[in-house]
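Need the bound structure for tryptophanyl-5'AMP, inputs here:
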Amino acid sequence: MLLSRARRQSPRGDPARESVDDCNSKITKSEPNDVTPSRAHTHGDANERRMLSKAVARAMMLRAPTDGGSRIARMAAATNQRRNATMTTSCIRHQFGDDVVRVVDSHRRSTMSGGRGRVAMRSISSSSSGGSGVTEPDAGAATESKPARRKRVLSGVQPTGSIHLGNYFGAIKNYVKLQDDYDAFYCVVDLHAITAGGHDPAGLEASTKTSAAIYLAAGVDPDKANVFVQSHVPAHSELCWLLNCVAPIGWLEKMIQFKEKARKAGEEVSVGLLDYPVLMAADILLYKADLVPVGEDQRQHLELTRDIAGRVNSLYGGKKWKKRKGKAPSGRSRGGDVLLVPEAFTPKEGGRVMSLTDGASKMSKSNPAEGSRINVLDTPDEIAKKIKRCKTDAFEGLEFGNAERPESQNLLTIYQLCTGMTQEEVLAECGSMRWGDFKPRLTDAVIEHLSPIQGRYNEIMADPAYLEGVLKRGADNANEVANITLRDVRDALGFVQY
Ligand code: TYM
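Answer from helper R.:
Posting the output first, comments after.
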């Protein structure tokens, strides 16, 4: 409903959304089909596609220096080369901008004339740490040299309590899945962790490190993804303030999580709790994230993020911004959308892992009953005890999809996720089992799945300098990207900047 209102408010509709959808519908490789089922693209013949692919690959090569100073850029080049095998011109324009389309055209002309098209490309900046650079335009870059923009993914987990199977299957496992095909930014959202009020500082410090270590132990690769702590990138707080002045309070008061938590907190409810989804919107919009892997419980916050982005674009983007002439700080021409409207990515299985003590409520960190969740760092004994005591039912056999049997659905899904089997395989193996036979099997599967993660976690925690290095490097890259967006937003809103 909020989205449709935002769309109505925009006189220009929502061009960013339209072009993303248009593009998604044409990309048939490297796209997660859980969120955007790909359709076979129908434009251009095989020769045309090969030619476009070659030209874009060439443009990408020119944008990715081989001097070791731009790891992210090289990753972008490699993935884009693969992805572009099936891209049309409009898709290329959306993803890489007019400059790459110009490269493609120039390549087409030079191929036809037998000569070589001349292309001016600017190298992509390196980070101050001497590590990876980012695929963002330099401020003041010439139009001809606008670098490529690879699709981005951003997500985060709050460092409160222990990370459980819901956080892991609903979000973190998908961080790993997406890091190969996207520029990935995964943060530990410590600013969100204090919104409940009266937090324990020592606990926050420990939990921030633990959460980051779990990302890495679960398979997030710091050579592919930027792992960082939210508060190490001050732009999150500043953009949150700017968005606070755009988001109507009524939108926030409607958030289910706010209503539930506020009811529990009573008079003590903090302003931060109400503002929580605006900070989340800032997290996402700063990185111009195309995709945001989250569990089902966060989808309403994602809708709000989309609405806020749409409102910023309609209030401050487009003609109003363009009329002020000249370039935005990022080097792009003023006008068009200020912020990119993101998509949620929620897995079909694991998007909502339920409590062990009540198959109708979601597994949650805030449930006072420790037995309601399995934590990623639980010992084998703890896991065995929790599964032994978990709620079951009195039906014969086990099944998916019976609304009267939420526990059967949930425990079979956890088994499926831990073993990597299909539903059919799970049913063939366990469909006729009794709970007494299934529970030990589930216990073994969970322990077996978590044990290598726990092993890697212990290694990471034994080397604090390594973790600190990863988080510092991640924050350097994140600051670089976030500041570019923030400067453009300030510009669109009319703040003087030198
Ligand atoms: P948090 O810390 O509550 O949860 C982290 C992630 O885990 C998912 N999740 C679940 N998925 C499946 N089943 C469950 N039972 C379950 N419980 C939690 C959540 O959906 C989430 O993806 N607001 C966010 C943190 C955040 C964020 C962001 C996320 C802040 N900024 C920007 C994405 C992008 C939250 O409270 O997550």
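Comments: The pocket of tryptophanyl-5'AMP is lined by residues 154-158, 166-167, 170-171, 189, 192, 280, 283-284, 292, 294-295, 297-298, 301, 351-353, 362-363 (CB under 6 Å). The first helix runs from residue 2 to 9.
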